[in-house]
Amino acid sequence: MDLFQYDFMQRALVGALVIGLAAPALGIYLVQRRLALIGDGIGHVALTGVGAGLLLNRSPVLVAVVAAILGAVTIELVRARGRTSGDLALALLFYGGIAGGVMLVGLSDASSANLNAYLFGSLTTTSPADLATIAVLGASIAVLMLALRPALFAVCHDEEYARVAGLPVRALNMLLAVATAVTVTIAMRAVGVLLISALMVVPVATAQQVTRGFRSTMTAAMALGLFAAGAGVWVAATADTAPGASVVLLAIASFLVVALAAAARRVLRRRVTPAVVSAPEPHEVVLR
Fold this sequence. Notes:
Blueprint: H1 7-32, H2 38-56, H3 60-81, H4 86-107, H5 112-120, H6 128-147, H7 149-157, H8 159-164, H9 169-187, H10 196-208, H11 214-239, H12 243-272
């Protein structure tokens, strides 16, 4: 029986593909800035928002969006002012966010199943309204990351150069922070807050094994994200596994395969390419 004939599986597939496209498009900038784990920190802050929403009988997703944006802006302000290291700020958000989320969910009437749905994702329970939200926000993130690629690359590569060039560095940094928060929040439905960083970072790391330019790396990462998302949902449907875990494991498997293939190619190239030995030209006379 083809499970994709059901509406809930079709919604799960479309939602996963949108997130698989948007997450690497944003993640390449986070990798460039060496903030690969920021998704984890913001994800745990979003979990606090989920707990607050459940406790106050408000929409958990909307409250999570607000909490994630506040957390992302806080990280950016701390990083920009340099009062403490970025790693310390992430650690504080990481532990404080998950502790606050677990505590608030415990104080509410929600069951542990509700918490697990946000921790590890629950694509098959995506409603038409959820899908519309994921599609609109995910497409907006992808379009912004592509449209502002030159400016965002300049800011992530060298902030001082970007500032001298007249770019609005602070505004672009805030845009990245807010985009990260929104991406983390919509991805809760697909892979969960504990796994979202993998979908942001792993396709980018895989693409870097075989590409050189920033544009080609971004394109390849988005294609790999689409593959991992689509294939992950198919594996989950056929093998009855968790969709979020299946998506992430396929992304990691792709990285291992590509990394091993790239390493084997480099070894083979060194063995096949003959050593270039400098020899005198025929008209040259070697004096002894």
